[in-house]
């Protein structure tokens, strides 16, 4: 089919018409179990009644006023995020990349405000993904996203994941911050060990650097804690979140301590749409559910169940799945077959999963999944692996 859209995406040939919880219904009526959640976005599944109510009732009152005026629902959401985290202040944006842009600018401005504008460099880690703006592709350091777009934005030094020597060598008099995802999502569900996060915190304290965490994919309950870094006991100075925080409505946030945000004075940063009344209404509604008693325990229970059942699928299909990675409801299957082949075969079983780097497929279901959704997903993953084994046998004959 010819399309008027810029061909930057390799889209699967399915269009969905509506969703209900963890299920999506295609235009031809076929139902798919959604274990991708729009790449970790639909944290509460599709058409969650509380979110629908929040969005539609706000839509009847007021959509947008700009940040030239006070936005009470934004004040409320900011305060709730501050109360629930390490942070003292919040800046709302519309996406993960924009939340990271705010984080990067804030880290640089912190040093400028302290009399050290030369400290603007940020150390990042191989396998990272921080977004697709010019600064965030430089931060992510993946050549395939950088090539052809002119000079790479200066100020990002990348070190191999887990290589302490390289990290120490990269920290110099111009270094402002370290920036890391507690679990690399696009990079293939690679968890940063808690002791490494603690070491990064100590290095930051020793060298006067800010620790920036990108929780765009890992945040808002996905690991069974509100934010993934909480598992390590380490707190960042600056953190970005997006995806799940809007439950499907475009929303990002940069959270920071007052100290880290000291340079961000009136007029130093801004956005037209960020934090608008629609986004704030939905953001507050998402938090109502995620912060309710027992919700994160539910995420942990479903995550454990899923991981246990996947372990027996892996045992049954040794030539297909070689490793299970991740925490709670951000899981990765490291594969011996091509991850895009697996994703397409899973789609034939009416299960949606998402490829990632390192030949992994990600399972990022809505956090509201039930035991029967878990059982159904496991059955379909088992069938997908069986289907691929049969294809491999057929090709060998
Ligand atoms: C860890 C991380 N950071 C940043 C981003 C970019 O977010 P967005 O696509 O909303 O700009 C993503 C998106 O996948 C991500 O996973």
TrEMBL record:
It catalyses: N(2)-acetyl-L-ornithine + 2-oxoglutarate = N-acetyl-L-glutamate 5-semialdehyde + L-glutamate. SUPFAM superfamilies: PLP-dependent transferases. Binds 1 pyridoxal phosphate per subunit. It is an enzyme of class 2 (transferase). Its EC number is 2.6.1.11. PROSITE patterns: AA_TRANSFER_CLASS_3. Pyridoxal 5'-phosphate binds at residues 96-97, 129, 214-217, 272. It is found in: Cytoplasm. This is Acetylornithine aminotransferase. Its cofactor is pyridoxal 5'-phosphate. GO terms for molecular function: transaminase activity. Pfam families: Aminotran_3 (PF00202). CDD domains: OAT_like. Keywords: Amino-acid biosynthesis, Aminotransferase, Arginine biosynthesis, Cytoplasm, Pyridoxal phosphate, Transferase. InterPro entries: AcOrn/SuccOrn_fam, Aminotrans_3, Aminotrans_3_PPA_site, Class-III_PLP-dep_AT, PyrdxlP-dep_Trfase, PyrdxlP-dep_Trfase_major, PyrdxlP-dep_Trfase_small. Pathway: Amino-acid biosynthesis; L-arginine biosynthesis; N(2)-acetyl-L-ornithine from L-glutamate: step 4/4. Its main location: cytoplasm. The modification N6-(pyridoxal phosphate)lysine is found at residue 243. Belongs to the class-III pyridoxal-phosphate-dependent aminotransferase family. ArgD subfamily. Homodimer. N(2)-acetyl-L-ornithine binds at residues 132, 271. May also have succinyldiaminopimelate aminotransferase activity, thus carrying out the corresponding step in lysine biosynthesis.
